[in-house]
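A common beginner's mistake is to predict each chain separately and then try to dock the pieces by hand. The better habit, illustrated here, is to supply every component at once so that their relative placement is modeled jointly.
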Amino acid sequence: MATVMIQEARARVTVGIFADMPDAAAAAPPSEESAAAALEFLAEMSPDLRGAAIVGPEGEVLAATGEERERWGKDAATLFAAADEAEGVAVEQVHIATEQGEVFAIRNAGLAAVSVTDRFALASLMLFDLRSALRRLASPNLGPPGGTQPRKGEA
Amino acid sequence: MPAKPHRILLDRVSAYADEAAAFMRRRRVARRPFARLYYPHGRSADHAQDSRAGAELFVAAGRLIEVAGEKPKR
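With all components supplied together, the output reads:
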């Protein structure tokens, strides 16, 4: 009972907090260069990562690992379509664990990110990294990936 | 003679570490494939592999795993 009340309070209170965050929609789609940089940073941060892609608002692939760039876009769209269809509601995040590996997908600010990792990757960390990568792409004023802002006096 | 206090502390910490290691081992052995979807406001739902929605999700995930290929050597 107490847990239910806490969950309700959390939903009630955090809705206001998240409504103030610059997540609602990206003003303009990020450049392919910044998406590639975000992907590179993600690969650096996640030792379990096998591959990943960032997809723009129109379903275009902004950055992807490997050679089959267009296939990432097509397969990510298929995954989100299947996920949305499951309950008839748009999903925010997807986590599928199989014997061959794990798939994570997230939508944020009109962008989408999909990643494939080895088995038993830490789901919360992977989803957090994907979400923060998308947030930084959607809001360039948050700074480059990794949060390293140029210091005073640096070009 | 009673054990030295720091020995008791070390034994306690080792016991917790052993428990955690055993939990992780059991998890690796026992974990089955799953498809979990997260909706706004923190709600989540699991879909079994033999359900229609679950089967579609696993097929889509399989394709993505295929595209990703092997882990790049670093």
